[in-house]
Write a structure and sequence with these properties.
Number of domains: 1
Order of helices and strands: EHHEHEHEHHHHEHEH
Number of helices: 10
Strand order of the largest sheet: 2-1-3-4-5-6
CATH class: Alpha Beta
Number of strands: 6
Distance between the termini: 14 Å
CATH topology: Rossmann fold
Length: about 220
Amino acid sequence: MPNPVVLVHGFASSFQHGWAEDGWPDLLADEGREVIGPDLPGHGTAEKPADPAAYAGMEADVLAGFSDHAVVDAVGFSLGARILLTIASDQPERFGRLVVMGVGANLFRNEANDALADAVEHGAPPDQIGLRVFEKMASDPRNDRRALAAVMRRVPPPLDAARLGRVSCPVLVILGDKDFAGPAAPLVDALPDVEFVGLAGVDHFATPKDFRAIDAALRFLSA
């Protein structure tokens, strides 16, 4: 039997919004894959506390969602990709194959993002276009702005080249050339067994919807 596939969404999203609406679970089911789709703490149907300390264990929460399976494959986007790489650096034996999208050099910035958290919770200045994008996402009626700001204020487990070097499973990195998370090179260089797919003309938020990303991920998972 093929491994189940864990789909971990990005910031201000959910399994339904980030994956199901774009057809990922159906495509994987067509290939005989069981799909595990957690909602990250602070998102979707999960609990939404407003205390940043409540999000210190996000990696453990995701890991608990597939604890019944010895080995899984997984796909993560943005925040979800960071969480999966953190888990895989600590417990590489839990993953067969791993696809990470919307991450690159940004993973090496290991600090809370207070400016982004303030924009998410209270609004962004008109001239801060990047922050206003996140503010708009957070203002979706499906989201809780205080909870999302708390997620941004958490200090994530640090990632560096040494830690990422412990990720022993094959990894596919997918990144658009207009993605603010780039460049991809620092991440690609740190991973021992890695493939890279660059998407011309694609920004951060369009990546999981791009047919080239979906096709590359499905081919990699079935290899």
